[in-house]
Amino acid sequence: xxxxxxxxxxxxxxxxxxxxxxxxxxxxxxxxxxxxxxxxxxxxxxxxxxxxxxxxxxxxxxxxxxxxxxxxxxxxxxxxxxxxxxxxxxxxxxxxxxxxxxxxxxxxxxxxxxxxxxxxxxxxxxxxxxxxxxxxxxxxxxxxxxxxxxxxxxxxxxxxxxxxxxxxxxxxxxxxxxxxxxxxxxxxxxxxxxxxxxxxxxxxxxxxxxxxxxxxxxxxxxxxxxxxxxxxxxxxxxxxxxxxxxxxxxxxxxxxxxxxxxxxxxxxxxxxxxxxxxxxxxxxxxxxxxxxxxxxxxxxxxxxxxxxxxxxxxxxxxxxxxxxxxxxxxxxxxxxxxxxxxxxxxxxxxxxxxxxxxxxxxxxxxxxxxxxxxxxxxxxxxxxxxxxxxxxxxxxxxxxxxxxxxxxxxxxxxxxxxxxxxxxxxxxxxxxxxxxxxxxxxxxxxxxxxxxxxxxxxxxxxxxxxxxxxxxxxxxxxxxxxxxxxxxxxxxxxxxxxxxxxxxxxxxxxxxxxxxxxxxxxxxxxxxxxxxxx
Length: 534
Fold this sequence. Notes:
Layout: H1 21-36, H2 39-52, H3 54-58, H4 66-75, H5 79-85, H6 95-124, E1 139-145, H7 149-162, E2 166-170, E3 173-178, H8 180-206, E4 208-215, E5 219-221, E6 229-232, E7 245-255, E8 261-271, E9 278-283, E10 288-290, E11 293-309, E12 315-320, E13 324-327, E14 332-339, E15 349-357, E16 360-363, E17 366-369, E18 378-386, H9 403-407, E19 411-420, E20 424-426, E21 432-448, H10 452-471, E22 474-483, E23 490-499, H11 504-523, E24 532-533
Antiparallel strand pairs: 1-23, 1-24, 2-3, 3-22, 4-6, 4-21, 5-7, 7-8, 8-9, 10-11, 11-12, 11-21, 13-14, 14-15, 15-18, 16-17, 18-19, 20-21, 22-23
Keywords: Cytochrome c-type biogenesis, Membrane, Transmembrane, Transmembrane helix
Membrane topology: Multi-pass membrane protein
Subcellular location: Membrane
């Protein structure tokens, strides 16, 4: 007896293959791009950029005032290093601020440019056809007239064109629209914002600025090596700086009765290297502008002048150095004068560290300043002799002594005194130090920003777009003609649709009244049937 083998079950079909790795990566990148270029993301990034700028307005910035940063470090020795590690004294050049700025820039470009293309197409397209049931729109109504349908629509078209609507006539109906400039203003606002960011970025990449303290009678040339502090864009090198030299001839500071500064003016000469230069006067709000460069007065102070006579009779006269203000209300200042070549060897180097008071008062042997004007200049000076450490390879501030040299005993105090103009003190080795006078210095900032005109034009365009966005209305009006129920005349069905406005009913009522009057004038002496409003 033979047996029949059971039929073999058909193999199950293989599961459908999933998307390839490349497609999955592409899809994920597209998803991230859509999220980044969404308007919501751009708004969030704009908010983060404004939030990131808050520390830059609350904390002193190195690019604006190195003195204020040093003072903050002195007042908050524990907190300042932590803030410095977070770049909070260099907010606008920090990596995290640049990251937010770059993401916002990319988001705006990806968000606005497609909308600009779409809007350009919409400008060339005709208003859409009238909806099937006009009476369902928020503002709608009917007007009866004895005119024929074509004649009635002629009156409607004429009235809408007078109101500056763009009108399209179709069979038995009219579509009209105005207010395209509202969307144009919206796009102009966002495109101008992109242009503004581009101008700011260009100014950072191709711009530079340097700060320097210049005493009356001295000058400087536009070179990174001469500035006390400077910052330059990534695409700038020393050969790109304009060849300009500036000499400070005179500086004047005027004060209010309460001794607050009212104005600073500096008489300068400027020109190319080796030129005599042209004279001009600049102030805090009146900078020098030359070929895209600007020279500002950002502050002022005093430079005490000393004369040093060595025991062998060698004299160094009228040596001055800026003393940095420690109290802006009285212009009490601190500074140091370093004379590495006075003694002839490292052990005989001389340094003067002092406190300057424009109007000084000595109480209990302590000098204080009571007035910011130089009415009675005095200086409390301490002389040190020894090794200054200028050739040690360790950078030092030109406005203060290296405290480590004093702590190690390499600089030894050789004398101290409170001096008025003309007074002298004699050191242990017979060296005579004389306080011979005082001069004023100006804190100058030389800036070059190639994007400033671009930023100005972008800001004006941005405000123009914002005004158009806020003041203009987008409005559509539709009209359709139909025969009256009794067979005599025409019934016009009118409707209006206004975007973003809660006051459309009065405008629609005004349009309806004007149309009723125009139809009545065209059909006189016929009477008009009152409208049936929905």
